[in-house]
Amino acid sequence: MKILIVGNGGREHALLWKLRRDAPEAELFITRGNGGTAELATPIPIDPGEIQALAGWAEHQGVDLTIVGPEGPLDAGIGDHFSARRLPVFGPTRTAARIESSKAFAKGLMERNGIPTAAYRAFRELPEAERYIRDANHALVVKASGLAAGKGAVVCDAKEEALVAAREMLSGDAFGGAGREIVVEERMEGEELSVFALTDGEHSLILPPLQDHKRIGEGETGPNTGGMGAYAPVSLATPELMERVERDIVSPTLAALREENSRFRGLLYAGLMLTESGPRVVEFNCRFGDPETQALLPLLDGSLLEPIRTVAAGGSLQGASVAIRPGAAVTTVLASEGYPGSYPKGREIEIPGDLADDPELFLFHAGTALREGRLVTSGGRVLAVTALGRDVRTAAERSRAAAERITFEGRQLRRDIGWREVERGEGRGTVDE
């Protein structure tokens, strides 16, 4: 069996790791790869965004399954191109991927179908946005409607901050084309929850939910990033809550997309806010989250490949399940100096050799590269250090301790991943309880 992974970051490294466990005999390929993927997959010299070239290569090589990691190729229509060539692909069509690539579309879909989310308005012109912000009687979040690598949301403490964010986005200075349209919405209060649903467009297999840490600084301070760490399980995600999430959010969203001729087949990611009135949608993504994937996959005891193959082949997930191992997983991200702003590249990374001997510790490479036999930084988020443990507290301590031992100049990390769960006194809970 030949499997192609599109993408070359930490999420894709984690997917390769899991697929190698699920199908040891498979031939695995990855677009470009990074400093840690060579031992798992053969890199191919095609960028993730070169859709036609990738489709031609996959067809020529007889690839049995393509899994798309990042959102960019999905927004560009890779799912459509592969399907047109009868190449099995795990990832939604371009129209279905609008659930992530256009926040304005996603908000409108939710509003039309009664799916709980924050009150909002979408704007393309600055004067209208400014009037709305000045008249608002609640705290605000300003978001670039398009794709902004997970950093296109500004949580505002004051109206002036919201006005500045709107001006910078609509001028194109902040996020380029992604900010040509913005969404200004009510700032919701509560804890966030990340929910992954493998779906055939109608039936879903919901995986264990996680919490991630978006802010660069400890205690949830500083600007948003693509994610500085994640953990599972989350004690707030009771069976009753997850039934409500499936009933009120996941199923209605899939039904709404079907009604708009945008059937969603792939991985639907729901970022939720657990408010006093119940779970409400912060955002949807059309692919595996990063770094949540790096925390989630080591907890899967059953096959991830089988439900993915079923969806890619056009089959049904009705009645599907996946076994989950007991315990907890915590991921700590190591980032470059300056991230989430501009950052240097090429700084040598030192990883103690004995870390590879721990069967419950996993290093997933993101922004790394091999240069003349040396492992160096090549991105904003460099490595994700995932540790397993009997509970969140233990896994967090092990993840943090291992992350501290990996060094490169200017290294950034948060030392409080999972702090909410630990403060609740629930850090000793496990997935199977």
**Biggest sheet, spatial arrangement of strands:** 3-2-1-4-5
The total strand number stands at: 22
**CATH classification class of the largest domain:** Alpha Beta
Q: Which runs of at least 5 residues are low in confidence (pLDDT < 50)?
A: 429-433
What is the overall silhouette?
globular
Let me know the average pLDDT: 95
State the fourth-level CATH superfamily of the largest domain. ATP-grasp fold, B domain
Helical content, roughly? Answer: 25-40%
Structural class: alpha+beta
What's the story with the biggest beta sheet?
A: 5 strands, parallel
Distance between the termini: 36 Å
Structure annotation, total helices:
13
Output the CATH topology of the largest domain. Answer: D-amino Acid Aminotransferase, Chain A, domain 1
Rounded radius of gyration (Å)? 21 Å
Descriptive notes:
This protein has 433 residues and is α+β, with helices and mostly antiparallel strands. It has three domains: 2-91, Rossmann fold, CATH 3.40.50; 119-186, Dna Ligase, domain 1; 191-423, 2-Layer Sandwich (D-amino Acid Aminotransferase, Chain A, domain 1), CATH 3.30.470. The protein has 13 helices and 22 strands. The strands form six sheets. The chain has a five-stranded parallel sheet, with helices on both faces. A five-stranded antiparallel sheet has the order 12-15-18-22-19. A hairpin with a 2-residue loop joins strand 20 (368-371) and strand 21 (374-377). Helix 7 runs antiparallel to helix 8 (159-171). The protein is globular and about 60 Å long. The two termini are 36 Å apart. The model is unreliable at 429-433 (pLDDT under 50).
